[in-house]
Amino acid sequence: DTGARVDIRQDCDPCQVHISGDRESVDKALEAVKDLRRRAKDGEDAEDAEDVVETLDCPRHCVGAIIGKGGTTVRKIEKDTGARVDIRQDCDPCQVHISGDRESVDKALEAVKDLRRRAKDGEDAEDAEDVVETLDCPRHCVGAIIGKGGTTVRKIVKSTGAKIKIRQDCDPCVAVVRGPRESVDKALEVVKGMMEEIPAPDLRTDLGTGPGADLRKSLESKKSSPDTKRKSQGTGSASAEKKSKRMKRLT
């Protein structure tokens, strides 16, 4: 199953197991042999030797999600599936070795794969049973939902029991709500209610407010300045004088 060559020397004490092959094959065979040796030391039945062993590569940053706080998650997998789960962290990527009967191993394998996927997506291991809902959130509503220093969103989290994360790297922003179904529904209702009460920004721009105000003030200032008035009056007087001279020449 591993592709490695396994030779056992029994002419020495203790006996020696020599494993050869490529790195991956040797690692798999080594884990299988270690598991069998452990079972023999623990006095487990020989029929357990026919158990299957599956190996799954696991990025180092995902290991914590599979082990869980104090090993709670991996123990739960073993209890629920009946398979044994061992995690090797002395290699990169780390490796998860799952052993047991075929059915138990398949169940544990699926559970570990799901946790690994969640960890890659940035989800917490303890949230494996939680539901996740997303809600589009206009950018002008984000500040009110988060609150000063995050006070408002923390109150929502505390009162509903759901976790809320606001993604602001997209437009519209997105509120990601996670937790038990009931908690998520409550949090969604609160956030939706807040967004409905927040008025949309006034996008109208006139010369009284906004960027146009500066332009209007600048134009009025130039128009009313003494220099501008004198230039205007001087131009009008010169024009009248030229017109009078033309009339005299005509007569």
UniProtKB/TrEMBL annotation:
Transmembrane segments: none annotated. Gene3D superfamilies: 3.30.310.210, K Homology domain, type 1. The keyword RNA-binding applies. Residues 201-251 are annotated as: Disordered. GO terms for molecular function: RNA binding. InterPro entries: KH_dom, KH_dom_type_1, KH_dom_type_1_sf. The keyword Secreted does not apply. Pfam families: KH_1. Residues 214-230 have a biased composition (Basic and acidic residues). Keywords: Repeat, RNA-binding. Residues 50-117, 129-196 form the K Homology domain. This is K Homology domain-containing protein. It comes from Chloropicon primus.
